[in-house]
């Protein structure tokens, strides 16, 4: 059975939004496979078998349904309980090449089923070492050729003759990822249309009393002006809040697109099953109390059986303010304001808070989905929906968990390229982090991994809901900054100083002003004004003078941002001159007005009250928002880079080494030092020469072979950080010193000593660490930072998730607090070797999924290059995850 497809199969979407179940085909599916082939039209049977005869049907059925064994596998897709299509491969010799074939029911063709099956079969084949599919296809079978060509995989088709020879490489790259994501988007949007653009909605459990949630949902749908047909289900009423009511779903005359379920928890499974039998394609379950009980199992069974999409349970509901829809299927108090902010949240409370803050700010919501316990519809679905939703100008996410982080990374990155994506980080206790044997794993807390995910995907991470609205306000009316150089203009010296401190704290540069700018300001301002940065205009300037200063700063090519911090005086309120200038949107201009009542608000003027920029009650949140959007703007300007595959990597040998180790250590464990060195060498990582000596005689022979001062390191069970516990002796030259060192290890570590490792003494250099911690959910995290024995004490590190591009690696090298001191200036260390090592370690972690922990510490960098002085690798049995496999959560 495939590691990606469990016995019950996985749900996936067709291009038209319908749900199919994909699973491995087994011998008991023979009747279904035979029936599929018998239903083929004469034309399809001719294209499938190069002839129209039926004599081959039983033979091909037997071949397809035999038990999978690595050299053969088949996957099928069931639609409404009927096998609608299948794909299978045959690799008789057990080599890397297999012949592939697909068959799809004629009634389902042109809906993406063939491509979906090919994706799942590719995943199964790669798990068994198959790297290439081949096929012979009639030239007139253009649909099948199109499936192969459009898959996004490297594909070669012979151009001539009555039939075509097709060769497909099963390697996945960015082209394949983009093709999969686009197919996913088309299918997901079609599926979610029932949730977010329904033509009809039924509220099941709509109470007659205003105090019930069902009644509130029904009233909000009515009051929002829902443009479709609205009905309710309640066996005790014919009408509720002016909405017609029927006693059961079965008695509805027309099948609704969406059912909103507000019944008690114990009634939810029967209600969802009734919806499924009636053909309702989507349900939103507001009810709570299902998770962790058999109620949840029953609900999921109905969802899978009837091919429905499910939002919730335990959620606030869904919103679409599009005038063509006007749907508020929530129990949020008051109307949800129309606007351009997309919201997806696992917490109903966070969603309600966001709506209230956006309402106060004068911004509004495009779509909102409260995912609740997130059985099916998730944040990834909404990222797909917003990708081409012109009504959504920014997105806010509150996610307490990630079902598919690598997919999230790709989708969030694609969305963030065109509009801000803001994530409110959920609290994760550092106390709960697991104890780890390696430095890297100890550093890779859940927060570090999550933040690396956000940073790589261009997601703006904040810690509170109010910080999210601060960022939205900063983006709403002003352009993104072209850089991080800020000028601070203030009529109150204290406000300017506070703003400068806050800007520096949030990564902005408060640089000295150019002479020409200072001279121009001096011509406008009184002699006692401060012409540095911040600029103190003094409290006596009027609005016109303040506006003139702002114009001068905006004309300076060395300034990207202006933060105007001012307070009203008896002379006037100079900040009121800002909106007319900010409205031109030449550069980013924000305002801080200490003393204003709202923490952040839109700022207009008497000429045009519509907001031209955001005004903050304190300089600190304004600077924090500016720092975040400047970082985001820099991310948008940078290239994604490329994830290269160095040609000298010996991947086959690495896989063989791992298999041999796990054959003797089925539970996994730490590689012996000599095996670690061999593995690093297979990936071109420059490890210092090491000789493992199990006894005194071998140690002496190793010393003679290395012929020079050596480092002697103990090899003992349970001893990983050798230098910390006295397991390293340096500059050993003579046999007497060597034997004394070995004897000392035996005295200290006793019978746990298995030998010693001898290495030539390395030329000193800067000690760094490169490591990997691999998580079953997030995949491998690569960590880079200051190394040596003090690595945990100093904790100056950068982290990124694989796949690691060259741009990611370069950002890691230059992303330490100490990077400026290490890699810039007259005595800068070279960075090219470090970028190459990070890229190779990323490939090692990605292509050898059994690596769960890896430490290269210390990695010494010198002017002449890099060298790994010590390394540890821990392996565990682990099937490779397929980040490209399309599947729904439920």
TrEMBL record:
InterPro entries: Acyl_CoA_acyltransferase (IPR016181), ATP_grasp_subdomain_1 (IPR013815), CoA-bd (IPR003781), GNAT_dom (IPR000182), Ligase_CoA_dom (IPR043938), NAD(P)-bd_dom_sf (IPR036291), Succ_CoA_lig_flav_dom (IPR032875), Succinyl-CoA_synth-like (IPR016102). Pfam families: Acetyltransf_1, ATP-grasp_5, CoA_binding_2, Ligase_CoA_2, Succ_CoA_lig. It comes from the Bacteria. GO terms for molecular function: acetate-CoA ligase (ADP-forming) activity; acyltransferase activity, transferring groups other than amino-acyl groups; ATP binding. Residues 20-173 form the N-acetyltransferase domain. This is Acyl-CoA synthetase (NDP forming). It comes from Actinophytocola oryzae. The lineage of its organism: Bacteria, Bacillati, Actinomycetota, Actinomycetes, Pseudonocardiales.
